[in-house]
């Protein structure tokens, strides 16, 4: 534990509390009455958070310190470790599958992938022994250990983890949209991590559960998804990559895996903070990869793309549940002092990463057709910060346009025809980028309308004018409205000025 970890952790916790408080207050205003808010999901998740943080801690420090499970610890711990390891894998699968919003996967294929991965991990041992026969193993020399981490650990494990995915890809028809490459790649990695985590949790008597939940399991998914993400792009967007992408990305995944392990393994160069920094960068990249493949789904529908608004809090509550269940088990098995020491160490060393992961993984910006760069070239330092200010999608929100307050050239024919049709009602559809504004939407009218005697499609483009209007407050806000020249059903998420023309500015509110 270092002072930097403590400062970062406290800062992240403070920022998360502020974010939670803002969302809590907004949810209260949304529900309107105390009684309605008391029954809301936000109140339930807040009460659960407080209960899981307080009740186990109070119980452990009040109950008699009898260690009733200690006589059975040697026999019980492998089984308990297996249950917790399965819980970790299930938790992260639940998260990844919740992003599969357009075309859900059959559970039988998911289970098949997971089981194949649990079986495939045993291939690691003969492959490793084969390398050892030729004298290639860890010996403490940094140069030797670097290449061993890349090829003796990284390449072998990435080959083993990708095998179940390749089998499912080749012999089933279920990998049929871009995000499926992320989902099945993650499931394969989670099957591998499940078996691996049992050993680590057992050896460390559950005290490593937060590290195995946050670092190891997520890192395994990221390395595998480096390969599957590029395979998805090659299949759906860049067919010229088809024959070269697999071996190239297998090597990239091995290098990334080796880099992650090297700073933890080699005693001469042991700098775990390098691995931590690399991990944060990796999670930002993985988040963008997931977001990109959701964006290019051929199954896109406005109705299907509403992601869970409270995902970040569900992630926090889920991870905290794992931590405190382990806390109770450690208390029952090894006593109060060991349990409290485990809890203090877990929070002090991991709270920043927990908040970072929860905030980022709950901050999707779905813009259909848009593929974002994996690295923030203009603001690289923000790669290491939680995405506190990501803009949630407003797709699916119903609006009423009440009054035209200005037009491009006075009241032209188009604006006059538009003003006569007000009030107009409809629903926000696809999110788009217009004039570098990432919070613009196609507005689907409830009824078609004519401008200049010509039938307009049932869609308009609306754009912000005040750096992020808050439609959740149900107040009137000024927005710019554009007519659409041509069909923009298929595009890459960016609307050009040539595709639209300005009608004017209107006042609108959420229905």
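Sequence proposed for the structure above (511 residues):
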């Amino acid at each position: 534990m270092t002072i930097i970890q403590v400062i970062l952790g406290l800062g992240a916790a403070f920022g998360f509390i502020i974010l939670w408080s803002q969302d809590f207050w907004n949810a209260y205003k949304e529900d309107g009455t105390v009684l309605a808010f008391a029954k809301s999901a936000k109140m339930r998740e807040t009460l659960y958070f407080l209960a899981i943080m307080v009740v186990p801690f109070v119980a452990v420090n009040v109950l008699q310190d009898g260690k009733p499970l200690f006589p059975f610890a040697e026999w019980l711990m492998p089984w308990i470790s297996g249950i917790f390891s399965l819980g970790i894998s299930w938790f992260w699968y639940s998260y990844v599958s919740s992003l599969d919003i357009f075309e859900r996967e059959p559970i039988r294929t998911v289970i098949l992938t997971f089981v194949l991965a649990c079986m495939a991990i045993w291939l690691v041992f003969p492959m490793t022994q084969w390398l050892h026969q030729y004298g290639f193993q860890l010996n403490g020399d940094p140069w030797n250990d670097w290449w061993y981490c890349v090829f003796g650990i990284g390449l072998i494990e990435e080959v083993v983890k990708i095998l179940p995915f390749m089998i499912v890809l080749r012999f089933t028809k279920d990998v049929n949209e871009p995000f499926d490459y992320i989902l099945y790649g993650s499931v394969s990695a989670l099957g591998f991590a499940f078996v691996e985590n049992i050993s680590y949790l057992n050896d460390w008597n559950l005290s490593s559960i937060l590290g195995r939940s946050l670092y190891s399991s997520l890192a395994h998914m990221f390395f595998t998804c480096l390969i599957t993400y590029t395979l998805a792009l090659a299949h759906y967007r860049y067919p010229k990559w088809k024959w070269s992408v697999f071996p190239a990305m297998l090597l990239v995944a091995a290098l990334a895996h080796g880099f992650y392990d090297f700073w933890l393994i080699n005693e001469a160069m042991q700098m775990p903070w390098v691995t931590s920094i690399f991990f944060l960068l990796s999670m930002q990249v993985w988040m963008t990869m997931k977001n990109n493949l959701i964006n290019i789904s051929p199954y896109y529908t406005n109705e299907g793309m509403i992601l869970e608004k409270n995902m970040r809090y569900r992630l926090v509550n889920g991870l905290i549940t794992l931590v405190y269940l382990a806390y109770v088990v450690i208390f029952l098995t090894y006593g109060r002092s060991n349990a409290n020491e485990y809890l203090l160490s877990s929070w002090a060393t991991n709270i920043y990463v927990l908040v970072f992961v929860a905030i980022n993984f709950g901050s999707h910006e779905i813009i259909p057709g848009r593929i974002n760069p994996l690295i923030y070239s203009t603001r690289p330092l923000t790669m290491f910060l939680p995405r506190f200010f990501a803009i949630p999608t407003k797709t699916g929100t119903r609006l009423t346009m009440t009054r035209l307050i200005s037009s491009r050239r006075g009241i032209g024919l188009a604006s006059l025809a538009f003003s006569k049709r007000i009030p107009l009602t409809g629903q926000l559809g696809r999110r788009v980028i217009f004039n570098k504004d990432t919070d613009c939407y196609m507005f689907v009218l409830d009824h078609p309308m004519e401008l200049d005697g010509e039938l307009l499609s049932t869609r308009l483009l609306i754009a912000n004018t005040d750096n992020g209007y808050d439609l959740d407050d149900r107040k009137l806000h000024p927005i710019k409205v554009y007519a659409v020249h041509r069909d923009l059903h298929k595009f890459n998420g960016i609307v050009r000025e040539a595709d639209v023309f300005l009608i004017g500015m209107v006042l609108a509110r959420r229905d």
